[in-house]
Amino acid sequence: MGIRTAVAGASGYAGGELLRILAGHPEFEIGALTAGSNAGTELGAHQPHLRSLAGRVLAETTPDTLAGHDVVFLALPHGRSGPLAAELGDDVLVVDCGADHRLTDPASWERFYGTPHAGSWPYGLPELPGGREALRGAKRVAVPGCYPTAVSLALFPALAAGLAEPDVVVVAASGASGAGRSLKPHLLGSEVMGSVSAYAVGGSHRHTPEMVQNLSAAAGEPVTVSFTPTLAPMSRGILATCTAKARPSVTAAALRAAYADAYAGEPFLGLLPEGRWPATAMTLGANTVLVQVALDEAAGRVVAVAAVDNLAKGTAGGAVQCANLALGLPEELGLTTIGVSP
Amino acid sequence: MGIRTAVAGASGYAGGELLRILAGHPEFEIGALTAGSNAGTELGAHQPHLRSLAGRVLAETTPDTLAGHDVVFLALPHGRSGPLAAELGDDVLVVDCGADHRLTDPASWERFYGTPHAGSWPYGLPELPGGREALRGAKRVAVPGCYPTAVSLALFPALAAGLAEPDVVVVAASGASGAGRSLKPHLLGSEVMGSVSAYAVGGSHRHTPEMVQNLSAAAGEPVTVSFTPTLAPMSRGILATCTAKARPSVTAAALRAAYADAYAGEPFLGLLPEGRWPATAMTLGANTVLVQVALDEAAGRVVAVAAVDNLAKGTAGGAVQCANLALGLPEELGLTTIGVSP
Amino acid sequence: MGIRTAVAGASGYAGGELLRILAGHPEFEIGALTAGSNAGTELGAHQPHLRSLAGRVLAETTPDTLAGHDVVFLALPHGRSGPLAAELGDDVLVVDCGADHRLTDPASWERFYGTPHAGSWPYGLPELPGGREALRGAKRVAVPGCYPTAVSLALFPALAAGLAEPDVVVVAASGASGAGRSLKPHLLGSEVMGSVSAYAVGGSHRHTPEMVQNLSAAAGEPVTVSFTPTLAPMSRGILATCTAKARPSVTAAALRAAYADAYAGEPFLGLLPEGRWPATAMTLGANTVLVQVALDEAAGRVVAVAAVDNLAKGTAGGAVQCANLALGLPEELGLTTIGVSP
Amino acid sequence: MGIRTAVAGASGYAGGELLRILAGHPEFEIGALTAGSNAGTELGAHQPHLRSLAGRVLAETTPDTLAGHDVVFLALPHGRSGPLAAELGDDVLVVDCGADHRLTDPASWERFYGTPHAGSWPYGLPELPGGREALRGAKRVAVPGCYPTAVSLALFPALAAGLAEPDVVVVAASGASGAGRSLKPHLLGSEVMGSVSAYAVGGSHRHTPEMVQNLSAAAGEPVTVSFTPTLAPMSRGILATCTAKARPSVTAAALRAAYADAYAGEPFLGLLPEGRWPATAMTLGANTVLVQVALDEAAGRVVAVAAVDNLAKGTAGGAVQCANLALGLPEELGLTTIGVSP
Questions:
Q1: Among residues 26-85 of chain D, which lie with CB inside 8 Å of chain B?
Q2: pLDDT digits (tens, 9 = 90+) for A158-214
Q3: Does ipTM top 0.90?
Q4: Residue-wise over D226-240: b if at least 16 C-beta within 10 A, else e?
Q5: Is the previous residue joined to B342 through a cis bond, with omega within 30 degrees of 0?
Q6: For the whole model, what pTM was predicted?
Q7: Which residue of B has its CA nearest to C50?
Q8: Semialdehyde dehydrogenase NAD-binding domain location, by residue (chains A, B, C, D) (predicted)?
Q9: Nearest chain B alpha carbon to C19
């Protein structure tokens, strides 16, 4: 008998990706699927690619429908997971793909979200220093945001090794699925295709404080982050270009060595061979972050570029990886590092 | 009788865009069309969209075939324009869309291109301070690179007004036409679609010294540029995100005022209303650069984002604008600021 | 003083394309711009590419706001144009981009639209036999649907010349702008990109009876049409593949001659050279239909393929072409046959 | 110890997809990887998504390098598999993803390929009537072409049940990976994006006789096929729209019942619920064909639409499915029917 698993928010993109991965996982048994306004409809109407689950009817997202499972994955709008988790019991593993419990600093939360902070949970980025330990045996996990996953893993080696100044500039391109299934004119195919656009410029994107939190922890000192997200004409993928002033006398060799060390033994972190640069398509559907790093000697900057599938390692794959760790399963179980390409 | 105009490199993307614009221009009369390996074939085989010119046979690119014109536009691989221009006569206006004569510093040229410098020509970015004057009556024009067009116009107001430090970070996304028609595996549709990728990271892109040159001139002091180009899944367009540390006590209002002043009266530079951000699709086929600027107070940085059509204002439109100026025609003649959208 | 022109539905895709064309037209002077739920907002919020009109405020679509113009273009949801036109006066030229007045047969209208028929207007496809004559001096014009434009112009020569049986199969791919700006999940960028999908299969698409009407007129006998539309991952463009059984002893040469004859002198119809096939990108932003035709001898079928920009010749360009004709202006005025490519 | 498996043509798209699937298959052990002009280079240079195999060096494609394996998958240009297979031994399972051994009629082969016929092998489409039996224990398998996979599975139920006339019209859209990694201008990203184009019109596509062969076998009488392929702006996927005259008095219910019967128990064939139509994105990376069928009563035609991933079920997934059958493994082993979406 498998591990009974519920997915709340099963009709959205994150929920669909969770189910795609869970359906191929050898230990999880898919139980309740719930939704908000789509409750009462069949999953196949929203996720036609999930053929083996197409006839499953979506229940309402309530403590009752989610009760009786060993693991509950939450893929809900922010503000929803705190009250729900409180009713699920301390013995249930709750893995929250939403933002509610990622930030440790209530003031940061309130500044960016405008609501009271729900408290922080163990943070689901095992590859960060100390990250894995915080997740073993945990009963609550806050899955990172997709941008912070890419940016934190791209920059922590340089900051942790003291090779870069704690003042970073990040420009990242994301596919349209990062905005979820929300019906807004600028997300229509006719607007997205053939166009790259900027949004939330000037430090207003809600993933910014999460990057600050992770990178400051890695650097051991406060890190400033200038973050500009852009929307690119693709369904999935994030390419994050991350730069910081190099500390004096840093060499390209020292930089590369720091990344090689930091990523050694990490199944899901790939440092590309010298001279090759990441493309998001290399990671499609895979639980991988591919990174390359360079030293721009003329500009005196470290440049690290990371590619990630925002729905896979950036959300659902990362969530399953954390669940594996929390439950004491092999961390890689049911996850692939091979993308679907071309 | 119109101004007799030749286009060298008519079977490439820049040449095609020159012809699209020239075909709608009231003063230019299209004369010789030349090509390299495509000489002897019909234009329609390479540029089927140029219906009215489809039957024109491409001549070889030689001084002879280009002789007898008032204006010659060169859209050639770098290294070709210097010797050719020398044989075209000083009374002919030569507008070079290639890189050969953009850089004033021979050492920069040699470091990035590895060949002897061919000398610099009047630089074709009229919107820069003093740029328009340098072009009136000129007989040789070096059209800027596509990335430098976007970046220089996005940043010069902040630097010229002393509002930003002379140390900038640029991350730009370009459509695939920026690489021309070269047959390389990573430019195949199956590789480009669904993917954003980085390339020429770490300061090696050849447009970097051109940005340094323009921004240093605007700032009145040497400017450092960290430039990372990325390839986005679209045919045309550049979105450049440009940031620099804000000088102490700069305000958002002062920043915005500097841009409003710098762009006032410029027909092809658009500062978007507050709260709106550029998308490349807004500029498709138009000779426009659309810009927005913000002050990120938490990160202490100025962030300017520019959208441009790399083939229009970024190459062929800019070239025609310069030709208008050099010939004493109205600067906007034959150029549109309205894009094809969606 | 120009021809005073109003556009109703200016915030939609068809309205935006009308304005893009009208802004470059030497005779039309843009007057009132109206909208439905967007009334009271600035055009620039919806059509940021229309830079020169960005500050124009959208009025409500009423007979009053549209009064006082020489020409009124209607780009409205179906069912809206009849009552509105009735109040505009018989001396005003009303060009309706909607479906209301395209069908001559009330029964067909009612079967596909479920509402009473509003009566038919002169049909705006000048290239069809007799089409031009019906439009000269007209005060009401029904602009064809985008699919019927492509299909009718691709097939009429074969049917009119008796070279094909009156039983045709059409499969057409359309870009997402064909669905307008309606907010539906399957039109989101993340769903459209990377995917081709079928819809309205089995004869239910509302453009079917319009194809039947046009092709039957061309053939001089009733024509059956099996039409399957598909949605392709592009913003604009229709590629229509149209086939019919070849009549006995038809030759490829006879077929080609029929098309060459039918298209002779037509500024907006292009028969491609033998061996070249249409691509929608060849027509982007142009008022052109590019066609190729072949005889499949093994299958005994005529195959004609047409490419058109659904918003240009397929809607707004066709509308302006008709307005030119109705007003006695040169038919090509303000229209280009050169697309924006690549 | 697993089944030793070699892949010839490992640096191409089909080879890469074979490796993606084989890497997740519980029984196959990946042995030699070979290539043509890429021999001597690392796989990671060509297939960066295949992270676990990135360091494997490509051998030359020769009988020697392929010797010593239980299974050899060939993903080679046509004309290469016959001589190679002759030297591999009769006890080795050779699965050919190329065209050489698909056609049973030498005259058809010679007409479309212009070379002598290499003889036919058991045909790898298990879902066709009798298809599975021909593959059990086979030592040679000809994997179908991608278009014939989609078209044959979409139409065989209607033809086998006598519900449609043996004269079919097929228009199919394919993603750019269907053309492989060949460096041709029309396959460049800048040309493919934003455009749908036709090619090989008029019956000249080499997959046509394979469709004729399969559909004639299903119908029990000669079937005529008019096939028009189109290139769509996506990396993967085929959407095939297939129509034929309905036989007299066929009803929609009878048609649907025929498909439900024909697909019953087929793990990889999905008949969508009524009212839903296939999209290629539903099948990305999955070994699935999704089909819908309708009766167009006005036009008197059966319309069947199929979506398939050209590289998965259309090539590599189909190949592994056949290998499973030939080796007596469970047919579904290592294959998924869940796509990567959105």
A1: none
A2: 999 999 999 999 999 999 999 999 999 999 999 999 999 999 999 999 999 999 999
A3: yes
A4: bbbbbbbbbbbbbbb
A5: yes
A6: 0.97
A7: B338
A8: 4-136
A9: B338
